[in-house]
Design goal:
GO molecular function: magnesium ion binding; phosphoglucomutase activity; phosphopentomutase activity
Number of domains: 4
CATH superfamily of the largest domain: Alpha-D-Glucose-1,6-Bisphosphate, subunit A, domain 3
EC number: 5.4.2.2
Organism: Saonia flava
Enzyme class: isomerase
CATH architecture of the largest domain: 3-Layer(aba) Sandwich
CATH class of the largest domain: Alpha Beta
Number of strands: 23
Family: Belongs to the phosphohexose mutase family.
CATH topology of the largest domain: Alpha-D-Glucose-1,6-Bisphosphate, Chain A, domain 3
Structural class: alpha/beta
Radius of gyration: 24 Å
Shape: globular
Helix content: 25-40%
Largest sheet: 8 strands, antiparallel
Strand content: 15-25%
């Protein structure tokens, strides 16, 4: 038996005491007798917090989502809250999404907190992640928790922790909480609920959230009566919010895909409930073609990501990527702020693997620009770290956007309304969302991005991902499609090096396992492991000038050809 397997077996044996329920003990004994490899997968490590909290496959084991792993996390969080806010009546709000066991796991988390004397506001039914972020400050809570695995496959669930500002926990806080968790044994978890401390919430918080979403996302666009929207919640939580918010903002022509409207953790009509995947929006796009809709919007299970499709120059529905949507949303918000009058303290934000066009916009409008590691917790942290600066909006390439700061996480509810406002106004002006995007390319440079995700599951997959990134670093790219690499940005060492001149610059954001190559012509190749899925991701960004909108198709094909050449050159195709 290997050292890892032996260690996993010893850990599994500690789960055979009477503290663990009989069903759990029976499952572990069965794995010991019949599937030692699966036992090893479940117990070889503890689940860890990544870019979007903790996510994992549900089941028994320390490397799985279950009442004990979440209970231990919650006990550690409760201990940390008591240390941080001594002599206060602590309050935590909890929400959950449509996934299997989310409701029962949320109840377990609430019971553990209440057993520790902490007041809990628990949503009575599933709600969106942005509403949870909003509710933290609305209810004056010290923390918030949402049970969700975002867009991961059906067998996953997860646990995200928010602090009093409504943003996700970040360093050093996350490390301090994890240290508290690691001090505990499972037997330290207090499961005996104090029901007097658990209060169910729903409509009152819903109403406040809807009002805030409309206030932040509605810009009184013209042409709403003539604008047709097809919306799909892809079996997730956004059905509880987006149709109502659109209605309140004045949109009357909203067609909901009924086959996907009922929350369902099996996500029966799609291969993946991820709006980044074209297949997830196929049903909605088909409906849009049939009824002549102007826009399709689809959201992931917890409603923090949105995918949209709009009519292209040929009048066909075309999916946009997160970078394209982010650029137009950011420009629109900057235009609105400019009309109201810049105060000189505005900033916009994005991540290191998102389109450089956002920085171009910041420079053109004379506003601040901040960039972060992947994950909206970092953008939320910017708002907290710079209280005297005004956050206009910001997003990341993975289909997430945040409008203002009333929610401190990516928010598909308000962003959906914003996208509709932009498109309705564009149509009323004789243009379109798509044409306005092309105009941005003319004004700020034509940037085109492409993402490659390679999935490697399990313990062996984690090793493969680590090796792939090691190879990418130790066998450096010297040129891309004939353009020399000038800069190598290593976020593990926090050093950006000019490989021609030898100049080095310090990277002033937290360390992370990300490597970026930048060439003479501005092409960027970035690689990083996903913080929420068993994947390694490669991000490719190309750019050129676009002299006028009439040349769009020709130049677009050239950039496509360049991207295909890069994929072939790096053997990523």
């Amino acid at each position: 038996m290997s050292t890892i397997a032996d260690s996993a077996l010893k850990t599994a044996q500690t789960w055979l005491t009477d503290f663990f329920d009989s069903e759990t003990r029976i499952k572990i004994k069965n794995l010991m007798q019949n599937d030692p490899q699966e036992l090893e997968e479940r117990f070889y490590k503890d689940l860890e917090f990544g870019t979007g909290g903790m996510r994992g496959v549900m089941g028994v084991g320390t490397n799985r989502i279950n009442k004990y792993t979440l209970g231990k996390n919650t006990q550690g969080l409760g201990n940390y809250l008591k240390q941080t806010y001594p002599n206060e009546q602590l309050k935590v709000v909890i929400a959950y999404d449509c996934r299997h066991n989310s409701d029962t796991l949320a109840r377990t988390v609430a019971e553990v907190l209440s057993a520790n004397g902490i007041k809990v506001f628990l949503f009575s039914e599933l709600r969106t992640t942005p509403e949870l972020s909003f509710a933290v400050r609305h209810l004056g809570c010290h923390a918030g928790i949402v049970l969700t695995a975002s867009h991961n496959p059906p067998e996953y669930n997860g646990y995200k922790v928010y602090w009093a500002d409504g943003g996700q926990i970040v360093p050093p806080q996350d490390g301090e909480i994890i240290a508290e968790i690691n001090k505990l044994s499972f037997e330290d978890i207090k499961f005996d609920a104090n029901d007097n401390l658990i209060e169910l919430i729903d409509k009152e918080v819903d109403e406040a959230f809807f009002e805030a979403s409309v206030a932040n996302g509605n810009f009184n666009a013209e042409g709403k009566d003539d604008f047709k929207i097809v919306f799909t919640s892809i079996h997730g939580t956004s059905i509880t919010a987006i149709p109502e918010v659109l209605k309140r903002a004045g949109y009357k022509n909203v067609t909901v895909i009924e086959e996907q409207a009922k929350p369902d953790g099996n996500f029966p009509t799609v291969k993946s409930p991820n709006p980044e995947e074209p297949e997830a929006l196929a049903m909605a796009i088909d409906k849009a073609e049939k009824i002549g809709a102007d826009m399709v919007v689809g959201t992931d299970p917890d409603s923090d990501r949105l995918g949209i499709a709009v009519r292209n120059l040929e009048g066909e529905m075309e999916l946009l990527n997160g970078n394209q949507t982010m650029v137009l949303m950011t420009k629109f918000l900057l235009d609105q702020r400019k009309t109201a009058g810049f105060k000189g303290n505005e900033f916009i934000a994005t991540t290191i693997v998102s389109t450089p066009m956002v920085e171009k916009l910041a420079n053109a409008y004379g506003v601040g620009y901040k960039t972060s590691l992947t994950g909206f917790k970092w953008i939320g942290k910017m708002i907290k770290d710079f209280p005297n600066e005004y956050f206009v909006g910001g997003g990341e390439e993975s289909f997430g956007y945040m409008v203002g700061d009333f929610v401190r996480d990516k928010d598909a509810v308000t962003s959906t309304l914003l996208a509709c406002e932009i498109a309705a106004q564009a149509k009323a002006n004789g243009s379109s969302f798509y044409k306005d995007l092309i105009d941005c390319y003319v004004d700020y440079g034509f940037y085109k991005e492409h993402l490659i995700s390679i999935t490697k599951k399990g313990m062996s997959g984690a090793k493969e991902i680590k090796q792939m990134l090691k190879n990418f670093k130790e066998n450096p790219v010297e040129s891309v499609q004939g353009s020399k690499v000038i800069w190598v940005e290593d976020y593990n060492t926090s050093i950006a090096k000019n490989v021609i001149s030898g100049e080095e610059k310090a990277i002033k954001i937290p360390k992370s396992n990300v490597l970026v190559y930048v060439t003479e012509d501005g092409t960027r190749i970035a690689a990083r492991p996903s913080g929420t899925e068993p994947k390694v991701k490669f991000y490719i960004t190309t750019n050129t000038t676009l002299d006028n909108s009439e040349d769009f198709k020709v130049v677009d094909k050239k950039l496509d050809a360049k991207i295909n050449g890069i994929l072939e050159e790096l053997k990523l195709g």
